[in-house]
Structure formats: structure tokens, C-alpha cells
Amino acid sequence: MSSSYSIKSQITICSSIAKTRGGSVIDLMGPTPSGEIHVIVGPMFAGKTTALLRRVKSEAANGRKVALIKSSKDNRYAVDSVVTHDGIKYPCWALPNLQAFTQRLGSDAYNKLDVIGIDEAQFFDDLYDFCCKAADNDGKTIVIAGLDGDYLRRSFGSVLDIIPIADTVTKLTARCEQCGRKAFFTLRKTAETQTELIAGADVYMPVS
Fold it and tell me: Transmembrane helix among the record's keywords (predicted)?
């Protein structure tokens, strides 16, 4: 009898707690359910931002409160908007880091958010910590879009660190400018060697 009770008690306890993405333990029976993390990766010109905007707009159309963030480093097309290569715009918060988001938005407005989109995610050094907290502690749905590799096909920023903790991962491809086949990588056409060089088709092209 005592053995049966002990097993039942353990099952009840295990069903009400879970290890979070950051490694800590949360109570699933608590007031804030765990959120979700969705990752969109691929080379430049693969449509990552387009896919992100499509998801954010869909969530907004379904009545969920959304916000979009991009790195303040990226001002190629606009300062306060996420812009696709073909000119589609959506207003956003341009920030130097993700930890500044709650402060800039305000805690009340942040608490009302359901979905947070992050474009050019490779530029945020605090991406992993932000996603863990926003999803697991705050119950947000996080959708990030970014490069998974740099022009030398090395890991770029913290995007790949998110893969093990993501609910879904979408790998997009572009069209190779050299052979016309699917392109999985980004080639730099100039001689600069720094990892971060924000530019467009004048500097980069997708290749197989």
C-alpha cells in the first residue's frame, strides 16, 4: 500500500514540474504556462524575414498581441521597421540587445504580449538567455529568424545555440547565383574579413 502510494505521488509530482530550456525547474501547474520557440534559418536571400513577418502577421490576425525586434546594427532599409529584400515593411523595436526590450517597452506592455518576433537574430549576443526567459518564465511564443552560418560557413552568433531548445526549426534555401540550384550558404563577394559586415546583394550572394 505504501509502495503504491509512493509511486503515485512521484507520478503526480513529475507531471507538475519540468526542466526548462535554461536548465532550471518550473511548476507546470503554475499561473504562467511555458511558451514556445520557433527558429527560421538559412542563407541570405532565402526569405527568412518574409517567413517571420508572415508568422507575426498571422498571429496578430488571430488576436494575439505581437511585437517585432531587430538589431539596431541593421539600418539598411529603415531604422524602425523590419524590411524584406523586396520592400515589405513591418514596424519594430530596433535594439542593441534583447535585455533592453522589457525596459523600453515597459513591464505592463510586455506582460500583455503573446508573441515576440526577432529578425537578424545572429546579431544578439544575449539571444539564448532572452529566449529561455521569455518562453519558459514568461510564457511567450518566440519566433526568430537569422543566419545559421557566416560567409565562411562557421556558426554565426547564438542562433545555433537555440536549436536544441526550439520547438520547431525551419531551414530555408535560396537560389544559387552560380548554378541555379538550391543555395544553402552565403558567399561574400568582397575582400573584407570581419564576421559582421551588414550589406545586401552588392556584397553577398547565395550559393550551393
Answer: no
